[in-house]
Amino acid sequence: MGSERRGLSFYILAVLFAVFVLFLYGPIATIVVLSFQGPNGGLTFPMNGVSLHWFHALFQQQMVGDFGGAVTRSLILALMVMVANVVLAVAGGMAFRRRFRGATLLFYLVIASLIVPSLLVSLGIGLFFSQIGIDPAWYSSAFGAQLTWTLPFGLLIMFAVFNRFNKSWEEAARDLGAGPWRSFFHVVLPIILPGVVGIALFGFSLSYDEFPRTMMTAGDSNTLPLEVFAMTANVTTPVIYALGTLTTAFSAIIIVGALTTMAILRKRRLARAI
After folding, report:
1. What gap in Å lies between CA 222 and CA 44, rounded to an integer?
2. In angstroms, how far is the first alpha carbon of the chain from the final one?
3. What is the model's pTM?
4. Residues of the chain with pLDDT under 50
């Protein structure tokens, strides 16, 4: 039997996909390679030696900016957004399983923040905090601004999860005498757990590298994206590439860790079902 010949459309789509991958990962690969420049290397090719010099320089005291503080603030803020995003999205998903007055209006109000320009959201929240006499800060106004970005995604994920949820399992638990909380923690939550992990991962990653909605709301202390942006105006060495490489590696570790956790949970569930 001869192999089926591929049409011209296959090769056109393959070329478009290759261009897309190159456009998506080419800049990241360039930054990673240039971060290993030698001590006398610059911001562009050609490479002038290979070393870890700029990774070491990244943590030196003479570096411009507060890299350690910015990373700490970004991590704490991302964890705050992740927890709030999971709690609110799961609660919202549970609430929207039943019809209630104003449900449609509430849904569109939540989703509308996705279509409002991020800078306008940031400016509005920053002005609101100033008007009520509270100084904008990364742990208050920036936290709220980032939730307007992550919560709609979390809610939409929960809608998809509950759309495939078989209510008979929950009803069976109720018939056996389980109360609402017990049926939620012992029946509903284990079933929707992969979706909850996805919401947590979404919330953390979106918050960790969020720039526009944090720009006007972070106050005097920069988060990591704001610190990187400030460094582009002051730092003219490959240390900025070293920072980009480390943050990219950190994000990759978080994603791989989450996917591994989901795979382990799925494997344990299948083992119990056998």
Report:
1. 27
2. 40
3. 0.78
4. 1
